[in-house]
Design brief:
Low-confidence stretches: none
Largest sheet: none
Oligomer: single chain
Order of helices and strands: HHH
Number of strands: 0
Radius of gyration: 23 Å
Distance between the termini: 68 Å
Shape: elongated
Structural class: mainly alpha
Length: about 55
């Protein structure tokens, strides 16, 4: 299986002269999507351990 996007991904290099239009489009689409795990984005509640420090 091959496509222009896969070729672009395979050949891309930082500071390279290759095309990156497809990569830019994919990055924009990912950023436009809502988070897939919204429960992880919620603030975490403090956990309190039930322990006794008396000697």
């Amino acid at each position: 299986m091959d496509s222009p996007l896969l070729t672009e991904m395979r050949e891309w290099q930082p500071r390279g002269k290759g095309r990156d239009d497809g990569l830019d489009a994919v990055a924009g689409a990912i950023l436009a999507c809502p988070p897939q795990h919204p429960d992880r984005a919620l603030p975490r509640r403090a956990v309190q351990a039930a322990i006794d420090f008396t000697p």
